[in-house]
Request: fold
Amino acid sequence: MLCRKLLGSSRCALRKGELKLQNVRTAAHFTYLPQTPNPALGDTTKLNMFQSINNAMDIAMEKDSSTVLFGEDVAFGGVFRCSLGLQDKYGSSRVFNTPLTEQGIIGFGIGVAAAGTTAIAEIQFADYIFPGFDQLVNEAAKYRYRSGNEYNCGGLTVRAPWGAVGHGALYHSQSPEAFFAHCPGLKVVIPRGPTQAKGLLLSCIRDQNPCIFFEPKILYRIAAEEVPVSDYTIPLSQAEVLREGTDVTMIGWGTVVHVLLEVAQMAHDELGVSCEVIDLQTIMPYDSETIEKSVKKTGKAMVVHEAPLTQGFGAELAARLQEECFLHLEAPIQRVTGWDTPFPYIYEPFYLPDKWRCFDTVKKLVDYM
Reply:
């Protein structure tokens, strides 16, 4: 049992009665579960997540000649290859590199969006979005409000690779969604895989409000599935129930959704517990109706995210559920999250909310008296 709890990214060995940890790193702390495509969306092709994001931007640029894509190194495809081939297809006036200035990238995006252009700005890592924080929260988010809707920058979408990747350490692993969820005027979206990435990104690009689209970078290549080739969107501010259940509600977004799906199966097989798994998808403005309906049914809830515990977005969800579902709750709402420390390198397996921590929390909820 103790070996099992020392996480899937390390291997335990017993030598001379002592517990030792062998330095073995695996590709991921979860198993990716591909989505079955919706037949109503027509033909599909197998894409990983960076390819589906590329496909979404390709469609957006083809159908809207005002669309421009810019950021550090996007001209040759970007660090993660999400913009590969787009400059060749649409030219250097529509897909172009910027200087290494996040504040400048977002400020430029606000300006061209205010002038009527559809702007897709790439920040190379979400960890480096903070130099542009003032531009996002004091300019982009407030542009429409301060002008009485005379002008706005609703055509701006900011993309950024987000979350743990297995070896990113403190400057390439952060999950900063809660910082931006606190700011009225911005929409914050995080997909769980290629199908959602394409549909949600197209929704963000076409939405008339500035959007921040965080992309779980560990999924860029691990996540592959049959993705509809058509131009489709997925509604923002709409959570998705991925697995129905009656005993415990589990809420997550991005990578941890796959952890929760595995935990739900474990709970069914080992405990006989029925878990409902919800992918929030849009962090702000979020779908409170879906999660409240679920918790009123199950009476028990847990929220899981990679970001630190204190003031993480799970705190907002826990507060809302306590306010709206109090008379239905049968146990305290639980949060399983990263710790209140900088994101570690060699201790990443112990930092992340893996399936064993989540499974233990399910048992805690079920056993609560």
User: Anything to note?
Assistant: The mean pLDDT is 93.
